[in-house]
């Protein structure tokens, strides 16, 4: 198992400083999330020759490696023109991953929860075009459902992943999305069990249960939106004792192909201690 750090919370740093900061916190791997100079959210990849060279130099200086890259595109949106643009972006992102010697990419289902059938059709249409490229390049695609995707349910997303019957498509469980996955029940162990051997990737961060009455107050009432956090372990409602216990039972950390990514957002001032603390907790629980 590789333990990685998602640098979204420190993406205000230069590429070089970002990599060095992650190394200073004790991490050996980076899960490169959308970054304005590399893979911006929803837009065409921007990684220039200069940025790639700077990134490789920083990796060499620190001994850090990239475990995985996260492109986020609306490849399942209901509009065909936008879907085609997203697939084009994906193809360029795959080229960048190959250039950086990355063999895992992870992403979200995306789309629109109000048009789930159309969006699922668009998603499969995009995958029909992209899966042969992933297989050709030897890249594994780890898929999660994200709040406000066309599918938010965890077990249903597992079924979607399994439907491809490909060793290059696996399931990602994000702890910070736990209460979206099963409508607030928070049955972490049950959902991990359901994923079984297709679970190859976990994202570790806490969150509050958004289904609790008045946990969040959003105006105007009834607005179409979702709210969640990626906060430090113990600051939310996720049952991490059950989470780590189930991963131990599944021998998740004993597999060479698995990734556990620390993905804490919103509080860059806490990273100097929360990053190392979370790394130490993962090592204690799983290694």
From TrEMBL:
InterPro entries: IolE/XylAMocC-like, Xyl_isomerase-like_sf, Xyl_isomerase-like_TIM-brl. Residues 20-253 form the Xylose isomerase-like TIM barrel domain. It comes from Pelosinus fermentans JBW45. PANTHER family: HYDROXYPYRUVATE ISOMERASE, XYLOSE ISOMERASE-LIKE TIM BARREL DOMAIN-CONTAINING PROTEIN. GO terms for molecular function: isomerase activity. Keywords: Isomerase. This is Xylose isomerase domain-containing protein TIM barrel.
